[in-house]
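Form 7-S
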Amino acid sequence: MLNKHKIVILGAGHVGSHCAHALCRRWCAEEIVLVDIDREKAAAQAMDVADSLSFPPADLVVRSGDYSDCADADLIFVAIGKARSPGQTRLDLLGDSVKMARTLVSQLSPYPLPGIVVSITNPADIVADYLRKALHLPRSRVFSTGTLLDTARLIRTLSEETGVSRRSITAFSLGEHGDSSMIPFSAIRVGGLPLDAYPQVDRARVLERTRMIGMDIINGKGSTEFGIGESAAFLAEAILRDRKAVLPVSVLLCGEYGQEGVHCGVPCVIGREGIESIVELPLTEEEQALFTLSCNVIRTHIAMAEQIAPLSEE
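Output:
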């Protein structure tokens, strides 16, 4: 039997609602609460998701709520913000997202936050850094999904290129959840073998597809939702069931990979306490340079976020 867990999703748009639905299928919590500035929308989304539970494996409550629900939540997903439009990068969303994050922090300030806070809002790395600082919580308890979805896309692409099941592929996308992300190809294992054993794989194409699949989806249907919903649910399960799974999320680096004071996607051991440790892959010299370049892109935008919505004003 599971301990009773409660998940709050802040933001009931495409991403938030699909996260809720994916969480229901994984049954890692007994209560899921949708909160949105548009209360009517949150209530409607909660009812719609609840309708999908007509034949559940166990009792599960899906409802709308308010910010006070965060006071006893085990896990809080931050899914506020605008969706990308065709042609927009995630970094283009910085101004609106950071202003919304500052408003959110003021709404959360009356309540204790004993649980873990995971941001999905883009640009993922910068918003995670902003929330961690504003909420005054340790890095183990405030992070973003980071390159988890990028990694899902990478593994799918590698499976398509090699013909090997996704279950037999180990690979990570690192750095920014964005156009400067990088792939440590030296760490990839396909069926237990290094990628060199599959000479037909075009590494440039793999990197391009990993970075651009999201934009292809946006161009085709206007938003991404299923992939990030399932990624968030997988992460929630790892946390609430104490899986000790190694997943790439955007965490504050404090010397790891030679980096200080920057959130970016790296493999982490994920369990009940959130981020329990950071896994440092042995990067080649070229890979380290690409990783540093990505971190510098994030640093530049962290500084911009602090100018747009200074934390001293809180």
